[in-house]
Write a structure and sequence with these properties.
With 328 residues, the chain is an alpha+beta fold. The protein has 9 helices and 8 strands. Helix content is 30%, strand content 14%. The strands form 2 sheets. A 4-stranded antiparallel beta sheet has the order 1-2-6-5.
Length: 328
């Protein structure tokens, strides 16, 4: 298994968790567009469902319309869940308010560049060659490059076309032509973006949780279903999980562990949540992975002493231990 970057894997994980599962072919479309045929339906349904794409109107996706550079930037920034509000200005003077944040965010991480130093040309149609560069750079797929049978895969876009071909995401317009200089349609872009996402999901390691145990008010142990592959680190594991606490009053708090460690056998992941202390509280720690969620109840509320003649009235609840543990 080739290790995809932490950023790429984390992005795929986040999208997958937000969509509840790895997307699958739906019996009926989950979008309102009347111009999306069976060839594009699965991709458009998924991307619409996770709010990555919109239509050109309430009922039209614009499947056969050419995609502009500006629209491609908006869609890609949505897919990568970039911070489009706080990205530094990339220096392009021809951006409108709708695309500015997305272009700036993509430029910041090196995914896109302008036609000139000061012009991005958001209204220009996106070529299939430029689309290959967008996708390969965004998902960091350069290492998958393979020689292609395409006679028109040359120039600055050649390595990106070879990488996209190497992933199996594209097979070209024909057996010998990629269509490098042809404009890409909105439907084609949806299919290729969706295919790229599926490739990343299928070729990434995602930790799966077997069980969870709250061991103290500031520490939780997560048992994984299998050992973490050697090429993956504890940071990769953390990036593949979501952490939250649901308290007994119904409130929910999401958090990131203050620190974490991986056991020698790489099957246990221990998180320290000193930043979210559970002392004096009762509720459930929830750990979400790529497929499902695991829960562990805790109760660190004070235990009252009893005045029963047959009971030891000197019992004290040890701080930082679950009430059930302290009573043993």
């Amino acid at each position: 298994m080739k290790k995809l970057s932490l950023f790429t894997a984390a992005t795929a994980t986040t999208v997958a968790i937000s969509s509840l599962a790895v997307p699958a072919s739906a019996a009926e479309p989950s979008h309102p567009f009347t111009d999306v045929g069976s060839r594009y339906d699965e991709a458009v349904s998924f991307l619409y469902e996770i709010e990555v794409v919109n239509g050109v109107s309430a009922t039209k996706f614009g499947t056969s319309q050419t995609l502009t550079r500006g629209d491609a930037a908006v869609i890609l920034a949505n897919m990568l869940m970039l911070d489009t509000e706080n990205a530094p200005d990339a220096g392009f003077k021809d951006l409108n308010n709708r695309v500015r944040g997305s272009v700036n965010a993509l430029a910041e991480i090196g995914v896109i560049s302008g036609v000139t130093k000061t012009e991005f040309k958001p209204g220009l149609s996106l070529s299939r060659g430029a689309m290959a560069k967008f996708l390969v750079t965004a998902f960091e797929l350069e290492e998958y490059a393979e020689q292609t049978p395409f006679t028109d895969a040359g120039g600055v876009f050649k390595p990106y076309i070879e990488a996209l071909y190497g992933t199996g995401v594209t097979s070209g317009k024909t057996g010998t032509s990629y269509g490098t200089n042809l404009n890409i349609t909105r439907g084609e872009f949806a299919n290729l973006l969706y295919g790229t996402y599926l490739f990343v999901v299928e070729n990434s390691y995602f930790p799966l949780v077997a069980s969870v145990q709250v061991t103290s008010a500031t520490q939780t142990k997560i048992n994984l279903t299998e050992a973490v592959p050697a090429e993956y680190t504890k940071d990769d594991v953390a990036a593949g999980l979501y952490f939250s606490v649901q308290y007994s009053d119904g409130s929910v708090e999401e958090f990131e562990p203050a620190s974490y460690s991986l056991s020698a056998d790489r099957k246990t992941f221990v998180i320290n949540h000193t930043n979210v202390s559970l002392t004096g509280k009762k509720g459930t720690v929830i750990i979400e992975d790529f497929e499902s969620e695991a829960k562990a109840a805790f109760d660190f509320t004070a235990v009252k002493t009893t005045s029963s003649a047959n009971a030891d009235s000197s019992f004290v609840h040890t701080a930082g231990l679950p009430a059930t543990k302290a009573a043993e």
